[in-house]
Amino acid sequence: MSFSARTRIIGIHKAPAHLSRQDMETKYRDLASAFASLPIAQEHGLKYEVCFANGKFDENVHDINLHGFEVTVVSILETKSDEALEKVEYHPSSEVHLTNVPQIMTDPAFQKLMQGVDFLDRTAGGTFAVDVVSLINRG
Question: What's the N-to-C CA distance of the chain in angstroms?
Answer without folding.
Answer: 14
